[in-house]
Amino acid sequence: MMRAVACTRTLEELLTAATARIARLEPLEAFAAAADGALIVDIRSHDSRRRDGIVPGSLHIPRTVLEWRVAPGSVSRNPHIAALEQRLVLLCDHGCSTVLAAATLVDLGFASAGDVIGGFAAWRGAGLPVADAPPPAAGLPGMGAPDQP
User: Fold this and answer.
1) Does domain 39-136 have CATH number 3.40.718.10?
2) Residue among 17, 20, 64, 62 nearest 41 (CA)
3) How far is it, in rounded angstroms, from Cα 96 to Cα 102?
4) Torsion over CA of 86, 91, 92 and 98, rounded to 10 degrees?
């Protein structure tokens, strides 16, 4: 039986602490980082990607399975996640859920994990490349290759 645990931190405190531990990038900075070898990891749902499009070259790993697809030693690790030194820049719809997700990646050992401020909406608003989403890959979610234009 689970016991009720008193909340010791507010959501705002969690977000502030997480933000202090990650690299938050404006869309143009994220675009430049990707050109320099960072991997943009799109954690949005299939529905959001189908509706709004994708960042060409990004790797789709839904938020619900992110930790299992990137954790060192995970039997379900995505083969396109190279090493802890790899720079991962997370992308969501509006740049909110990536803050806590990126902080979790730091906890897993990805020291340079970060996110795109404003998410996909800001990326698109900055006039950066967008493509139609491919159909979801067969098999386990989040195990595919980076999306190609």
Assistant:
1) no
2) 62
3) 11
4) 50
Continuous segment of H or E residues that includes residue 114: strand 114-116
How many whole angstroms separate alpha carbon 19 and alpha carbon 24? 7
| Residue 25 amino acid letter | L
For 41, how many CA atoms within 13 A lie in the half-sphere containing its CB? 30
What are the pLDDT digits (tens) for 76-117? Answer: 999 999 899 999 999 999 999 999 999 999 999 999 999 999
Q: What is the pTM of this model?
A: 0.93
Select from 92, 85, 88, 82 the least CA-distant residue to 121. 92
Quick one: three-class SS letters along the chain?
Answer: CCCCCCCCCCHHHHHHHHHCCCEEECHHHHHHHHHCCCEEEECCCHHHHHHHCECCCCEECCHHHHHHHHCCCCCCCCCCCCCCCCCEEEECCCCCHHHHHHHHHHHCCCCCCEEECCHHHHHHHCCCCCECCCCCCCCCCCCCCCCCC
